[in-house]
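> example.struct
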């Protein structure tokens, strides 16, 4: 049952809501994203379902105590069951079912059996673009890659910030020297907005971190792809990739999730090497540096960019408007309007 969502304030796109390893068969758990209480479940077949959490019968939150029964989700209060599309299929004490009342179902996918994504659109419409595929995230879920688990994923919950601060970072070359300890400012080699993708290639001197700290500086070319406003994908020359995901919780908070997809080392072990883990730790550390700024940055205020930085910001702002239902309101404190929108003024 695909009902129109109540959310009018969040952009359209694919957003991460968790990791596959967190959700066992038969498990039901409550979530809150996009200003909605949701319930996530894994059926006995292994498929995943996502629904608005409140039961149409007497409004119990199914995320608390609900269970799966075969390929249905059962409410903990009076046992009403709902199928994968959210339709009521069984009322234990009645010969009838409710034809008109069901749960709103969300489109959900698992990338390589590793990362769980949900589609959100402001008007509740079906996905208008695909989630990233093997071309964007080579190796995810394949036997030649380490399984994604707690060592290679990290969640930053309840951050008081707008999600667009994260994607905007991919065109902000002048912050790297101050926030990410790069010896020099980087330069953009290529900006390529195509449909829902925004590809950025930039060169940057980078400081490396080994298991013991490291510190060697190398010149590096980095390529990232913003996949809508929810996912930033970075691919590395050795086959590894990093997924940086930002998902709105409500109008003022969001959750960030980082996932490192790593090729298995020569031993074939499930566990990444110390060097691989150090690299992931470095990526987390850099995002944590950004977070200090993002979570304290003033919302909705105008910024004054100089000529050297304005062009990539303008390109980015123009691209991101496609994901919002209406022109962002200047001065908004919410996830609806990017706080950056008013800032592209020199
Ligand atoms: S509230 Fe869900 S079955 Fe009654
Ligand atoms: Fe940054």
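> example.seq
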């Amino acid at each position: 049952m695909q009902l129109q969502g109540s959310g009018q304030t969040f952009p359209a796109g694919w957003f991460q809501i968790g990791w596959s390893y967190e959700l066992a068969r038969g498990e039901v758990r409550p979530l809150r994203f996009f200003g909605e209480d949701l319930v996530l479940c894994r059926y006995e077949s292994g498929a995943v379902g996502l629904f608005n959490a409140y039961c149409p019968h007497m409004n119990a939150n199914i995320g608390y105590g609900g269970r799966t029964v075969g390929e249905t989700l059962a409410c903990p209060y009076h046992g009403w069951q709902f199928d994968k599309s959210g339709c009521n299929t069984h009322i234990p004490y009645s010969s009838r079912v409710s034809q008109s009342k069901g749960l709103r179902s969300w489109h959900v996918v698992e990338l390589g059996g590793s990362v769980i994504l949900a589609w959100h659109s402001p008007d509740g419409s079906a996905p208008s673009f695909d989630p990233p595929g093997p071309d964007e995230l080579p190796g995810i879920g394949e036997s030649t890659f380490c399984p994604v688990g707690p060592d290679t994923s990290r969640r930053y919950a309840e951050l008081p910030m707008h999600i667009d601060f994260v994607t905007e970072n991919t065109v902000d070359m002048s912050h790297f020297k101050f926030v990410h300890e790069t010896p020099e400012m980087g330069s953009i080699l290529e900006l390529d907005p195509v449909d829902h993708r925004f590809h950025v290639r930039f060169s940057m001197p980078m400081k490396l971190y080994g298991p013991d700290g490291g510190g060697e500086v190398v010149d590096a070319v980095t390529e990232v792809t913003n996949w809508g406003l929810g996912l930033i994908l970075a691919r590395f020359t050795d086959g590894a990739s990093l997924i940086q995901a930002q998902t709105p919780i409500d109008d003022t908070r969001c959750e960030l999730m980082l996932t490192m997809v790593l090729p298995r080392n020569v031993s074939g072990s499930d566990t990444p090497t110390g060097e691989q883990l150090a690299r992931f730790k470095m990526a987390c550390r850099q995002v944590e540096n950004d977070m200090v700024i993002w979570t304290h940055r003033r919302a909705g205020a105008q910024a004054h960019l100089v000529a050297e930085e304005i062009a990539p910001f303008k390109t980015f702002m123009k691209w991101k408007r496609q994901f919002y239902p209406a022109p962002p309101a200047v001065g908004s404190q919410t996830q609806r309007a990017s706080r950056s929108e008013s800032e592209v003024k020199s």
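> remarks
The domain at 13-120 is CATH 2.102.10.10 (Rieske Iron-sulfur Protein).
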